Amino acid sequence: MRRYLIIFGLFVQTEVQRELEYRANLLMEILQMIMVIGSSVGAVLVLFTYTTSLNSWTLPQMLVLLGVYYLVQGIEEMVFQPSVTQMMEHVRRGTLDFTLLKPANSQFLLSLRQWNIIQIAQVTLGAVVMIVGVGQVGNGMTLVTVAAFLLMLTCGLILVYSVLLVLATLSFWFVRVDNILAVFWAFMDAGRFPVDIYPGWLRLTLSTVVPIGVAVTVPAQAIANRLDLTGLLTTLAGTAFAWLFSSWFWRVGLRNYTGASA
Length: 262
Fold this sequence. Notes:
The protein is globular. The chain has helices at residues 2-19, 23-47, 59-93, 97-100, 106-112, 120-137, 143-169, 178-190, 200-207, 212-223, 229-255. It contains eleven helices and no strands. It is an all-alpha fold. It has one domain (2-255). Helix 2 (23-47) packs across helix 3 (59-93), helix 3 (59-93) runs parallel beside helix 7 and helix 3 packs antiparallel against helix 10 (212-223).
């Protein structure tokens, strides 16, 4: 475990050094994120000038959900997206051999090697919006609420990672799966609204096939005191299944890999 923590630290250190080489670009990207998140918050505020609730979601609860959405999306774009994209490129070029020959778990190396450190800004801004919303909910924070939120947030991130890993593993059989990832990111945008406001078929898709609805809505429900025990246990079971299935599917893909040296 200590060896993997050291490797993880080196990955982060390398990416931080790379980002700091272009500081003007870093500042511009942060300003862009502020504008995007600010416009999203503004749109929600405008929406709630015409109504007091959105399918029983109040304005403070919607702010909580929006904050969780940007927090989850920021982590996905910071860690999972760049690593998965690079993983698919290694498979396509047949250069995955260089990773597979290293004396460490290949899934770990490929899943955490590439980082987009600038997305820390999006994670921070999302957390700020969420905290503002929580402060207005008025239900009172307890240790149980915080624990449930952190647990559901972890489950949501694992679900997102598991789906991306499955999609990336498809590259062992198909030349390019970029279009499939584009569909995933399109569904990701739908996560900025509560999953229960969508029609039945889309709600089912956002809860199972592309579980971004679970990854965002359930943690928001937990921190806003809208999550019951059944929802919590169902999310835990679904997350365990997704993790086990994606890891198994990855191993199946590796057995079908033909590298440049073959």
